[in-house]
Amino acid sequence: MPVHVLAILIPKADRIARVEEIAQGMSTDVEKNEPGTLKYQWFRAGTAEEPKIFVWEVYADEAAAETHMASPGLARFIEIEKQEGILAAPLQVLTLEHFAGFASR
User: How confident is the model at residue 63 (pLDDT cuts 50, 70, 90)?
Assistant: First the structure.
């Protein structure tokens, strides 16, 4: 059964370019090294002064989700946040439960 995850990041306004740079590298790594990751998309929202980033992730199963959570790329992101303080608020990771609607026609 697929696992759906939404990560919510609130970057510091002056660090948005750095977060986007990290996102590009992580996206490449995930696509190359995590075949169980079915969807991994980063989205911008908010304003220049109050940016928000949402990462929509879909994994083939719980094992694939755990592989991502233990990945070097995610560990690198967490380390960069500790060293550089790129986020204005703690990272939120939500596991989603689908209850209505459809993905495509």
Answer: very high
